[in-house]
Amino acid sequence: MVKKITTNKKNHNEIIKAESKNLNFFYADGTQALNGVTLPVYENKITALIGPSGCGKSTFLRCFNRMHDLYPGNRYDGQIILQPDNTNILSDGVDPIEVRMRISMVFQKPNPFPKSIYENVAYGLRVRGESNKRTLDEKVEEALKGASLWSEVKDRLQDLAFNLSGGQQQRLCIARALATEPEIMLFDEPTSALDPIATMNIEELMSELKQKLSILIVTHNMQQAARISDYTAYMYLGKLVEFDATNQIFTNPSKKETEDYITGKFG
Amino acid sequence: MTIQKKPAANKNLDSIRKTIANHKRHDFIFASLGTLVIASLTITLLILFLDLVIDGYPRFNLDFFSNFPSRRAARAGILSAWIGSSLVLLVTFFVAVPLGITSGVYLEEYAKKNWFSDLIEINVSNLAGVPSIIYGLLALGLFVYSFGLGQSILTAGLTLALLMLPIVIVSTREAIRSIPVHIREAAYAVGATKWQVCRNHVIPYSYGGILTGVIIGMARAIGETAPVITIGALTFIAFLPPSPIGLEPPFLNFEWLESGFTVLPIQMFNWISRPQHAFHINAAATGAVIIMLTLLMNGFAIKLRYNIRKKIKW
Amino acid sequence: MNSETDLIISPRLAKNFRRNLMERIIEFGLLCSGLVAIFITLAIVYVLVSEAIPFFQHVSIKDFLTDTVWTPNYSIKHYGILPLISGTLTTTGIALIVAVPLGTITAIYLSEFASHKVREIIKPILELLVGVPTVVFGYFALMLVTPMLQKIYPDLTTFNMLGPGIVMGIMIVPYIASVAEDSMRAVPMSMREGAYAMGATRFQTAIRVITPAAISGIVAAYILAISRAVGETMIVAIAAGQQPNFTFNPVESAATITSYIVSVALGDLEHDGIGYQSIFAAGLTLLIMTLLINILGHAVRKKYAERY
Question: For residue C132, which of A194, B7, B215, B275 sits 20 to 30 Å off, Cα-Cα?
Answer without folding.
Answer: B275
